[in-house]
Description:
The protein is an alpha/beta fold. The protein has twelve helices and 13 strands. The chain has a seven-stranded mixed sheet, with helices on both faces. Helix 2 packs antiparallel against helix 8 (about 230-240), helix 4 (about 60-70) runs parallel beside helix 5 (about 85-95) and helix 4 packs across helix 7. The longest helix has 18 residues, at about 245-260. The mean pLDDT is about 95. Pyridoxal-5'-phosphate binds next to helix 4 and helix 5. The site of pyridoxal-5'-phosphate (PLP) has 15 residues, from helix 4 and helix 5.
Amino acid sequence: xxxxxxxxxxxxxxxxxxxxxxxxxxxxxxxxxxxxxxxxxxxxxxxxxxxxxxxxxxxxxxxxxxxxxxxxxxxxxxxxxxxxxxxxxxxxxxxxxxxxxxxxxxxxxxxxxxxxxxxxxxxxxxxxxxxxxxxxxxxxxxxxxxxxxxxxxxxxxxxxxxxxxxxxxxxxxxxxxxxxxxxxxxxxxxxxxxxxxxxxxxxxxxxxxxxxxxxxxxxxxxxxxxxxxxxxxxxxxxxxxxxxxxxxxxxxxxxxxxxxxxxxxxxxxxxxxxxxxxxxxxxxxxxxxxxxxxxxxxxxxxxxxxxxxxxxxxxxxxxxxxxxxxxxxxxxxxxxxxxxxxxxxxxxxxxxxxxxxxxxxxxxx
Length: 365
Ligand SMILES: *Cc1c(COP(=O)(O)O)cnc(C)c1O
């Protein structure tokens, strides 16, 4: 079976370095908020081109901490795409604010800036722009609207570590950004991990306290905070893997390039490649077809594992029964038609060719 994402093979490439980093942490005798977290924060901030990075427990907590630090809660509305992984929306619910869903552009799958303005009310505080599938949202258009209504722009960069928009990296495209380093993300830890980046020093300071019981100084609590820390071991793993992020993103780009070049089947819609190919990091390569389940079965039978990102749109989830009657037809269509092809940075050329060949055979009698 060609796996969708071969995490074992990906991490095996760095096994010696990872073991050495783990050994360093074990030997240090210091496991929470020490040198590794501080060093990773510095290195990831530099990579993104921002002033501050705060390491946290995971991507959902990263988003939640940003919203909390801004003081958003009951009565506030946050704009968020209807086509996203549900964590973007859960973060808003978790602080007690109201998620206001906006449909995506059906070429980029990211939030459609043209549909944002009609959803803005006096209660709107921020736009949570998700860089879905590894491609940045249309940030200039989003920023323009935000500026006119004095809203904050928050990035959900969980799927786009290293992606760029007009040369600038994610994490540096809004007022603050939340990252996830879940093992399957482009920059993946060996467990749960996340981070927040921002150029706002005041915000960074507040988040630094909020992630650690609301405290800067032991046993003195400024805020009703959380335990949402990044631990030393994961920071050490991430420091190793950050060195290879660009290389891995390039490997993903090469696979995406081949898919674009050689998949040729009228029943398949390929994702739109951006003008500057360097900017997309292909967290997933999402194709669309009318009978998605049939294609998935066809590929499974040929020994090719695929994944659906995502099968049920957030507004159709049981967790959000209050949205049961709401209609987001573009999101619903996308959720019914998408299928993600294997895109391991370690995928062999031979496997990529096999996948292309299988897809080109699909539907032919
Ligand atoms: C993975 C992901 C998250 C959540 O990150 P976790 O680390 O799993 O909490 C949030 N938003 C998006 C778009 C994601 O893909």
